[in-house]
Amino acid sequence: MIQVDHIYFRYHSEDNSPINILNDVSLEIRAGERIAIMGRNGSGKTTFARCLNGLLLPSSGVVRVDGLTTSEAKNLADIRRHVGMVFQNPDNQIVSATVEREVAFGLENLGVPFEEMHEIVERMLFIFNLEKLRKQPPHQLSGGEKQRLALASVMAMHPKYLVLDEPTSLLDPKSRREVLERISTLPQDTENPVATLLITQFPEEALYANRLIVFHQGKIIMDDAPDELFSRHKELEAYGLEVPVKFQIAEFIIKYLQS
User: Fold this and answer.
1) Is 26 helix (H, G, I), strand (E, B) or coil?
2) Any residues with CB less than 8 A from the CB of 18 and at least 6 apart, and which?
3) DSSP secondary-structure letter at 230?
4) Which pTM was predicted?
5) 13, burial (CB in 10 Å: exposed 0-12, middle 13-18, buried 19+)
6) Which of 30, 58, 97, 120 has its CA 20 to 30 A from that of 68?
7) What is the CA radius of gyration of the chain?
8) How far is it, in rounded angstroms, from Cα 114 to Cα 117?
9) Interatomic CA distance for residues 28 and 31, integer angstroms
10) Does residue 188 have a pLDDT over 70?
């Protein structure tokens, strides 16, 4: 379980006045949960995500990953093995010369035996439909292929939690669907369920989750099932957010029938 207890994240402006990016955020992320996070730009979503594996440390409050606090440097290696991250731009995390070497990179750093590593790499290439691209340099891949490679490389290390920071925002609709399909088929078995936390600007993507969290001005203002929150479209619109098209159509039909 990831436990976030009353965290704040602030920095100081040029005149030394404090600016809060996160304001007293608390929540728990349990094994196997599918969570989507929405909020306008500047609402604190990405800052929050980077606090979950110690890329950023909160100014106050505590983040615990399976009991390990991110504030203790000795815990960070284990935490980052358990909390994988995929960023908006895959070029920011791809480091190897070929696709298969990229998938193997994290495993090599962990000292995984060769035979086991080979088996994992082959499985990830198959799952993420990268087998025919194994010898390709990553810079020659399309945006969707790069994002699938980033996912495969993170999933190769068997994280318990996967944090996806707007992974489809730079992609065309076809590539976006491909990446979401891969995310939706991540392991959900009872032995090794992967909890996913998807930060997205597309309301339709939030429907894949079983829990939707809305950030506004560094605070969590909504936390419920997506269908429940999207039915409260007026509240979401007040915070500058849209609802999926099917909810807009349903509202139009209801208004038409009532007129």
Assistant:
1) strand
2) 10, 11, 12
3) H
4) 0.87
5) exposed
6) 120
7) 19
8) 5
9) 10
10) no
Query: And the tokens for 82?
Result: 């358990």
Is the distance from CB of 150 to CB of 86 less than 8 angstroms? yes
How would you class 70 by CB atoms within 10 Å of its CB: exposed for 0-12, middle for 13-18, buried for 19 or more? Answer: buried
The length of the chain in residues reads 259
What is d(CA 197, CA 195) in angstroms, rounded to the nearest whole number? 7
CA 240 to chain CA centroid, Å, is 21
Q: What is the number of other CB atoms lying within 10 angstroms of the CB of residue 19?
A: 10
pLDDT in tens, 157-182: 999 999 999 988 888 888 888 888 88
Angstrom distance (rounded) from CA 150 to CA 231: 34
The alpha carbon dihedral of 32, 52, 162, 224 has a sign of positive
- Six-digit token pair at 235? 């509240």
Whole-number Å distance between alpha carbons of 98 and 19:
42
